[in-house]
Amino acid sequence: MIELGPGRGTLMADMLRVITQLTRTMKAQVQVQVHLVENSSAMRAMQQKRLGKQGNLEIQWHASIDSIPPSGDIYTMLMAHEFFDALPFHVLKRTEEGWHEVLISSSSFAEPPLPEPQSSVRYPCFYPVLTPAPTPISTLLGTSSPRFQSIPVGSFLEVSPVAFKIAHKIGELLRKGGCGLIIDYGGDTFYDNSRRAFKDHKIVDFFHRPGECDLTANVDFAYLKEAVEDSMPVYKPLTQSHFLQAMGLKERLLKLMKNHRTRDPEKAKRIEEAALRLVSVSPDGGEMGNQYSVMGISSNDEQSYPFIE
Q1: Which of 104, 158, 110, 99 minimizes the C-alpha distance to 128?
Q2: pLDDT > 70: what percent of the chain?
Q3: Could you give a single Gene Ontology term from the biological process aspect (predicted)?
Q4: Buried (b) or exposed (e) across 95-130, using 16+ Cβ within 10 A?
């Protein structure tokens, strides 16, 4: 089992718990190897603490997916939840001359955001600039997908070659026997202005306190699909709302509500509100149910539920 960006280890712990329950039910013996792609030593310690409760479990940490060896005789399952949206990306603009790259420049100082008559404090100012001509990287990325040919002059494009490379590696790891789920912000299309910055779980200006904010951009799932499908089948992504409801969220919620309604009504209410938030949708795509997409990958040539068209 492989997880990219495993956070605190909660999701992997849940998956291992379910696998243990299923193997007991089927009276089968399954030996699980866990590979976690994580750079942070602090997060690795947190994951070790969470997963150490699973017993004699073989866990290997990797700084990069490239160090995970493919295995032809062991079935491989991969999970990437809110991993791809945090990867580096480029911003391009199409002109009559071709694709230019948007870079970041700065002036020495800028006026403070509000008048401060008694203060002489001035602030560094960051702003986007366009390269004067197409560059090798902007030309390469702007032609890296046939879908980009239809983008009109004057339009912008966010594209992540790092995401493409990792997705291609996923295909190599799973093609001889495996499956995977990628869950993230985004959809089955490219984006021009989805980038944003988060500080303390709130959206802030993109140039606010550089190095201290989390920068993200929506994931172009069609781009990931192009990277993987050379190796194995990839299913068209579903919205998170569609996926969770098809996988029995309602039935699971009813069971949890039944268990807690009498003993702890407040907890039952919190569970219900959390579940509804996960599947809520809105016409502008601003709710979690349609902000997130789920893409399935499988070495099986047949379609797999719930990715059946």
Answers
A1: 104
A2: 94
A3: mitochondrial respiratory chain complex I assembly
A4: eeebbbbbeeeeeeeeeeeeeeeeeeeeeeeeeeee
Tokens found for residue 308: 């059946």
Is residue 66 scored above 60 in pLDDT?
Answer: yes
Bridge partners, 133 (sequence order): none
Which structure tokens are listed for 28?
């089968």
16-25, 34-43, 56-65, 197-206: segment of lowest average pLDDT:
16-25
Residue 238: is it exposed, middle or buried by C-beta count within 10 angstroms (0-12/13-18/19+)? buried
Classify 38 as helix, strand or coil: coil
d(CA 275, CA 248): 12
Q: How confident is the model at residue 115 (pLDDT cuts 50, 70, 90)?
A: very low
Of 201, 216, 194, whose CA–CA distance to 285 is shortest? 194
User: Residue 186: helix, strand or coil by DSSP?
Assistant: strand
Position 117 scores a pLDDT of 45
pLDDT at position 57: 79
Alpha carbon of residue 286 to chain centroid:
17
Which of 136, 163, 137, 158 lies closest to 148, judged by CA? Answer: 158
* Annotated domain spans of the chain: 90-159
Read out DSSP for 130-184?
A: E-SS--HHHHHHHTSSGGGGGPPTT-EEEE-HHHHHHHHHHHHHHTTSEEEEEEE
Q: Residue type for 4, please?
A: L
Q: Which residue has the tokens 């409801």?
A: 245
Q: What is the mean pLDDT of the chain?
A: 91
- SS in 3 state form for 214-266? EEECCEEHHHHHHHHCCCCCECCCEEHHHHHHHCCHHHHHHHHHHHHCCCCHH
Q: pTM to 2 decimals?
A: 0.90
User: In terms of residues, how long is the chain?
Assistant: 309
